[in-house]
Amino acid sequence: MITFEPLWETLKEKNISKYKLINTYGLSRGTLNSLMHNQNVTLNTLNWLCQVLECDVTKIIKYAPDEPEKK
Fold first, then answer.
1. Is 35 helix (H, G, I), strand (E, B) or coil?
2. Residue 46: inside a domain
3. How many CA atoms are closer than 13 Å to the CA of 23, on its beta-carbon side?
4. Does residue 70 lie within any of the structural domains?
5. All residues at 6 or more sequence positions from 62 whose CB lies less than 8 Å from its CB, including other chains
6. Considering the entire predicted model, what is its pTM?
7. Distance CA 16, CA 19 (A)
8. Domain that holds residue 46
9. Per the structure, how many domains does the chain have?
10. For 33-66, how does the pLDDT look when each residue is reduced to its tens digit (9 = 90+)?
11. Cα angle: 16, vertex 1, 33; to 5 degrees
């Protein structure tokens, strides 16, 4: 599973709020909602976040293996 946990830490480090992402940088509320719920976003969105936050993609996303399904 891909998770956006690192994004929230990076935002704290850079002192950028979710409000600022929307109102200063122009992130849509829908995209923010997708990020908050670990849902799909485009590679363009990831690229844009890297540019805005001046960071590597590893500061935005993390891969965590899914738990195996139990039968």
1. helix
2. yes
3. 5
4. no
5. 2, 3, 4, 5, 6
6. 0.86
7. 8
8. 2-63
9. 1
10. 999 999 999 999 999 999 999 999 999 999 988 8
11. 40
